[in-house]
Amino acid sequence: MSVQASPPTESRLRRALYALPFLVLSALMTRAFAMAEPIGPLLQEMVQNSVFTAPGGVEVPVIQGFYRIPLLDNIFAVVTMAFGQLQFFTDQKAYWQSLVFLTDFAGMYAVVLIESYRPGNKFPAIRFPVVFLFLSQIFGIGFLAPLFFFTFYVLTPAYKLTTPSLHRPGVAPCLALLPTIVLGYYLTHFPSYFHSSLEARNWWNWIWQLFPVWGSVIMLALSKIFPQPSDKSERASGKELNLLRLTVGVLSIVGMTTWWYTLAKMDYTIFEVFVPQHLINFPQDPHLGLRTVIQYDYICCYSAGFLWLTYHFKDLESVGVCTISWIRAVTVSVVLGCVVGPGTLFILIWLLREELLAATRTDSSKSED
Asked: Any stretches that span the bilayer, and where are they (predicted)?
């Protein structure tokens, strides 16, 4: 009779200390939040008048109550008013930067969703990402994403990645992932930026704000509807990987198209649009302050995502799954990121991790045979 080996132990404290750079990103985002202070009174005044105003005589009637839940309406009346600054093209730099950022985020959202279905990820914050994502709509993804990935890394040692029974999400969730992103995210995101009516953009943005809720409901429903094969064979594992390839392929095309569309249309340099110009000194112009916060939001969110992937690849290297030339990897990533955009680069690197783990499972299966 075979005895099942217990998983190798690894100090969570050691992993937490190793992951402290995540917390530096959250601290940076905390400082950036203060730069939006000048625009606060302007947003409150516009909310009271139910009219978005901007220099140049722009006046857009906006929705003040949408969900018919006072707490949510009070919170998101201010949030959607701030999004008007991003989506109404009154600040062109903010428009283009946030368009790329929020289109890119669909890929990170897909990763977070599918990771929540892995049997080894039992911690509530990872298992039910709707809470983290909903709070991010209020407190900023640039602040909470580093905390999320910090927790994720500390609680996910290498054996959880390399043990198929702990890592594989199942065919049904993989099948549900793409329609969830399309219906729960893209369907409301793009009209928020491209609808010809600014009032309609505001309406669509109110719906988009709760994408964590809509996406979780759609993902759960489709995962129950789609058939889940009972076998855990290599064939089922291959089907999961093919579905993830399809999803990443579609999201990559959307993200890369948006990236190149933005570069072609905007009248500014990448540095002007995506890199914040303030850190020590705070901007006095309220609109510049809000734009700077969104720039830091993007940087801190994706820095945390890439750091999380880096740590996981280090784990895989330590257990012999792969060997990495880090100088070459960083160089290729920078070049590829300039071509496809940061968000697309993130999901492509994540898919590479999945490919390596799938190849390891295949090799293990052959060796057992």
From this structure: 65-83, 95-114, 126-154, 166-186, 206-222, 243-261, 326-352
For residues 209 and 75, what is the distance between their CA atoms, to the nearest angstrom? 11
Q: What is the pLDDT of residue 284?
A: 87
The model's pLDDT over 111-159, given as tens digits with 9 standing for 90+, comes to 999 999 999 898 999 999 999 999 999 999 999 999 999 999 999 988 8
Name the residue ranges covered by the structural domains of the chain.
21-35+90-363
**Residue 224 identity:** K
Beta bridge partners of 80: none
Q: Give the chain's length.
A: 369
The 8-class DSSP code of residue 59 comes to E
Q: How distant, in Å, are the alpha carbons of 30, 109, 113, 129, 134 from that of 212?
A: 23, 9, 10, 8, 6
What phi and psi values does residue 54 have, to the nearest 5 degrees? -150, 160
Percent of residues, the chain, with pLDDT higher than 90: 76
SS3 assignment, position 247 = helix
Decide if 110 contacts 98 (C-beta within 8 A). no
Query: By the 8 A CB rule, do 149 and 221 touch?
Result: no
- Nearest-angstrom CA–CA distance, 21 and 11: 18
Q: Burial level of 367, CB count in 10 A (0-12/13-18/19+)?
A: exposed
Confidence (pTM): 0.93
Q: How far is CA 94 from CA 51, 91, 219, 257, 294, in A?
A: 20, 5, 31, 19, 8
Mean pLDDT of the region 277-290:
88
What tokens does 278 get? 């303030």
Structural tokens at position 27: 């601290």
Give, in order, the Cα–Cα distances in Å from 107 to each of 180, 294, 368: 12, 18, 35
Give the tokens for residue 55: 């220099």
